[in-house]
Design a protein that fits this description.
mainly alpha; 283 residues; globular; 12 helices
Length: 283
Amino acid sequence: MGTTHRQPPTHIARRMFDLLEPICLVTFLADECNEELAALGHRTYWDGYFASRAAPLGRVEAQVVHAAFYSFADGEAARHIPSVWETIPPAASVAARKRGSTASLRRILGDELAGSPGLVRAADLTTEAATNAPTEGRVMYAGMRTLEVPGDPVARLWHSATMLREHRGDGHIAALVGARIGGTEAHVLSALEQGIHPPESFGRIHHLPKKRLAAVLDGMRERGLIDIDGHFTDVGRATKQGIETLTDELATPPYEALSPAELDELIAELEPITATLVAAGSR
């Protein structure tokens, strides 16, 4: 305790990402959210994903969702948007996502931790940070800010962590655009950073047409980002690191709403919550 104010702001942003991400991941990895969305009538996991995540933007067209999500290949959003909303209103998908995610957190954390004063305090401080950042240039974050903050502490912690995740994601997209790295190229860089080779085998892109993947890789070779064998070059590694550093810088504004003592307190209260979720794989 009492050391956060001596850390660079980018370190705080990265630390908070590490602590909050396992809270957000229950939405995508645990069963309850998918079950809630399926019960509404969403036919597939990806129907529910696109419907519930894009819903805060309203009934926008696929081009808008494609732009806001950034990392999906051409045409992927259009397979789900706007057809997912023909029979299921966006608000219903938002509510189902919240119910399922909250239920997952309660199950994984258990009654004692989910009902602890520490979780309530973590929810309060996370919400303070999540509701006090500028929305300009933050499309997904701005959409989340239009939603009502839940009263239940577990739901509030998930909701506010997800707001911060979208805020960081918006900044990450800005960093990618600035580095002239497209969505598929970003997945290639992520795969290489994780030690996945060949990068086109990465789960987020391996299903794309081989011709499309080959064109992306050829373009990255021409720019000197990867070598002939599909490995990082020094330029590629530096580009990836630069994007991550800028993402951390752009993710700092929400935490400026908290005092150094409050940041230390938030980290201390989140640590046992995150540790429990990590041990369970957020499932």
